[in-house]
Amino acid sequence: MTTTLVDSFAAQLLDWFDHAGRHDLPWLHPRTPYRVWLSEIMLQQTQVKTVIPYFARFLQAFPTLPDLAAASLDDVLAQWSGLGYYARARNLHATARACVERHGGDLPRDLDALIALPGIGRSTAGAILSQAWGDRFPILDGNVKRVLARYHGIAGWPGLPAVEKQMWSLAGAHLPEARMADYTQAQMDLGATLCTRSDPACMLCPVQSGCVALRDGRVDELPTSKPGKALPERTALVLLAANAAGQVLLQRRPPSSIWASLWSLPEAADHDSARAWFERHLAGEYDRAEALVEVPHVFSHYKLRMHPLRWRDLQARAAVNDNADLRWVSAAELPQLGLPAPIRRMLQSL
DNA sequence: AAGTCGGGGGC
DNA sequence: GCCCCAGACTT
After folding, report:
1. A GO biological process this protein is involved in (predicted)?
2. Residue with CA nearest B6 C1'?
């Protein structure tokens, strides 16, 4: 897997990295296993600029891996709120606890042991081992896929298993004998700053002399983009029930599917089920609802049109007080709760 | 091999 | 609007 390909790719990349790489990223100072792991999880499908403020706040709340393990899932989700892909937060928490129980409070320095932990796949495991310890393992994220597709002139969407398999092989073949931490960072810096998706700066590229796509004039068509598909649309009624104190009734979402375990507004597919839910939990007239303007929200795989219904000065029925998944929340409490981003915006705009 | 899982940025 | 982003996991 890590057979050495006799070329200058890694050497040229490292030379470039020394003077042109991003040496100021917060997770590099210091570059500890915990900070590398946390940054890698946050950076999954998420851009650096988005991650930086979350990374700082998260570390302040949970300075060490044992701190994270000792925290409640709710507190972790609150720190994660707005970052998306909330399974990452649940997996992060579960992995912290597993490390305390099985690995002495540290991340294991072993590829298979890392991959066995929730939320860590082959690429993230390679990134952790190479960056935290300098161990010789490849990564294959969006940056590396784009660089390899162009450098080797590989056609086909990189999400296809056959293409991905070929890229893993090439990524392993390019590994240098030393400086693995810098090499891993250098690949991502190259993809993020020069070998960008649109308008790449090929004339500044340290590996332009060996790039097949540049030689053949195919830079703009590689990597092959994902085959498109029309997004399905769904509509939902969201219930915005306020009491006399101005508190809003929130409901914890189910532990699986979208926005799992987050606090959100009660949701119903249609007016019949909305009315039934309302009458079971609240004292008041459903038909006095005020229909607010539609709130559209786009996920990766469907589009959701939310239709908020608002009531004021409602009272709860007894069932609400006995339900651990329902609670009245004041505006001041919102920052401490894990809410989906569009729901948080909706509540803050009131 | 395809679907699920967020939110934001770039064009 | 569409695609992508330091992907992993389930079916």
Report:
1. mismatch repair
2. A84
How far is residue A191's CA from residue A197's CA, in Å, rounded to a whole number? 8
Q: Residue A3: its pLDDT value, please?
A: 53
Nearest residue (CA) to C1' of B2: A160
**Strand B nucleotides in reach of protein CB atoms, 7 A cut-off:** 1-11
Nucleotide nearest to A144 (CA to C1'): C6
In chain A, the DSSP E strands lie at: 233-243, 248-252, 263-264, 267-268, 282-283, 290-291, 295-298, 303-316, 326-329
Concerning whether A164 is annotated as a catalytic residue, the answer is no
* A252 CA, B6 C1': Å apart: 17
Bases in strand C with any atom closer than 7 Å to a protein CB: 2-9
The pair of three-digit structure tokens given for residue A34, joined into one six-digit string: 């915990």
CA of A228 to C1' of C3 (A): 9
Every domain of chain A with CATH number 3.90.79.10 lies at 233-348
A290 forms beta bridges with: A310
Between CA A175 and CA A70 the distance in angstroms is 38
The catalytically annotated residue of A40, A177, A267, A279 is A40
Position A188 pLDDT exceeds 60: yes
Instruction: Give tens-digit pLDDT for A77-133.
Output: 999 999 999 999 999 999 999 999 999 999 999 999 999 999 999 999 999 999 999
Please give the CATH topology (third level) of the domain spanning A9-221: Endonuclease III; domain 1 (1.10.340)
Helix (H, G, I), strand (E, B) or coil at A173: helix
Considering chain A, tell me which residue range(s) the CATH 1.10.340.30 domain(s) occupy: 9-221
Strand C-proximal residues of A, range 236-295, CB below 7 A, are none
Task: Please state the φ and ψ torsions of residue A254, each to the nearest 5 degrees.
Answer: -60, 155
Name the architecture of domain A233-348.
Answer: Alpha-Beta Complex (3.90)
